[in-house]
Amino acid sequence: MNPSLCLLSRGERTRPLVMGILNRTPDSFSDGGRFEALDRALAQAERLAEEGADLIDVGGESTRPGAQPLSTEEELRRVQPLVEHLSRRLSVPLSIDTYKAPVAQAAIDAGARLINDISGLRFDPQMAPLIARSGVALCAMHLSGQSPESIHAPLVAQDPLERVIADLKETLHLALLAGIERERVVLDPGIGFGKDLAQNLAILRGIGRLRRELDTPILIGASRKRFVGELTHRAVDQRRDADAAVAAILTLRGVDILRVHDVRAAVDAIAIAEALATET
What we know:
Layout: H1 3-8, E1 17-23, H2 38-50, E2 55-59, H3 72-89, E3 94-97, H4 101-110, E4 114-117, H5 127-134, E5 137-141, H6 160-178, E6 185-188, H7 197-205, H8 207-214, E7 219-220, H9 226-232, H10 240-252, E8 257-260, H11 263-277
Parallel strand pairs: 1-2, 1-8, 2-3, 3-4, 4-5, 5-6, 7-8
Helix pairs in contact: 2-3, 3-4, 4-5, 10-11
């Protein structure tokens, strides 16, 4: 079987996969600068793997509100050596968080097995053909914005869940049209990207409908997001407990992949949710 299909297939697994976040950036909203140095990034990746990450998502460009788009050259400088080192040192599959085809290509050459494209294949016309011919998996996210400068363009919709489903169906169509098999595609509703508190909650309550109507695995990246802070009144670095609660609830609602900063907390929350979901 194609390694990318093995990566995404649930098989006998009932729990969601845990994707650990590794940002080699100076300005990410949650951990900006902590892992900018290569040795610290490598150590963090090893810690994520030890804590139970099923995948590690490497990113070189911050997508926080107000962040400026990064040049391809600078993004490559940040992520290419990191992916190369991790591919040799870890058995955990690697994902690259980028919307630029040259960065994706370099990461694939270095060993990445999943491209996490926040633009849903819309920012770089070469991304879909690259993924189609490379055989790697794709996670395509929902955005209202149509360019790197408008990543956080507000979602304007009377029914946010309906709108996100319709837009992701178009994204899936783009992927299939390019020759990317459905079995290689994960879709992400883009929690926090141009969506307010009520919209985020409506989307998260609709995970079951997302999975049914899109017929693909669903990834949720809610970790440390603003809506968590709005609900708990906690600072970014104090949202671990709330994130664990989100992970447990989404596990019970059938989410396929959880993208998180605190892997151990998510793994523990999933274990508890699974145990309590079994009726006697």
